[in-house]
Design brief:
Elements: H1 3-6, H2 10-16, H3 21-31, E1 34-35, H4 36-43, H5 48-61, E2 64-69, E3 75-80, H6 82-85, H7 88-115
Antiparallel strand pairs: 1-3, 2-3
């Protein structure tokens, strides 16, 4: 069995859930059309180089639309595409899961860390 057959959503996870794709899509979905510097401010910790790379890849994947305005100075705006917007139910579900379960995940981590490193008598 090929790996992509073992997990049919693997390619989608690679596209949508890379380190910066999700925050970029979330920002464009939540705040609408944005200029580069506005996106940079909304996301906060992303470097201009990485933001440029991710936006290009997302445009290539059809998730983002880039509009160039021939003005002085030139202006470029980015917005989520219809394809990108089709991910909204998925993001809403993940947001709901996050609200309901992140505290439980944190408690599980704390319990695991408090128990120490797995030893010979502890299953892992």
């Amino acid at each position: 069995m090929r790996p992509e057959q073992a997990c049919p959503i693997g390619p989608v996870v690679d596209i949508v859930f890379s380190r910066w794709t999700t925050p970029i899509l979330w920002a464009l979905h939540t705040f609408g059309r944005q200029r580069f510097v506005e996106l940079e401010r909304l996301i906060g910790t992303i470097t201009p180089k990485v933001l440029t790379q991710r936006l290009r890849q997302m445009e290539r994947d059809g998730l983002v639309v880039r509009t160039y305005y021939q003005e002085v100075p030139p202006r470029v705006e980015y917005e989520i595409s219809e394809l990108g917007r089709s991910l909204s139910p998925l993001f809403a579900t993940l947001n709901d899961w996050s609200q309901a379960n992140l505290a439980r995940v944190e408690k599980a981590r704390e319990a695991y860390d408090a128990a120490g490193t797995p030893g010979p008598g502890r299953r892992h």
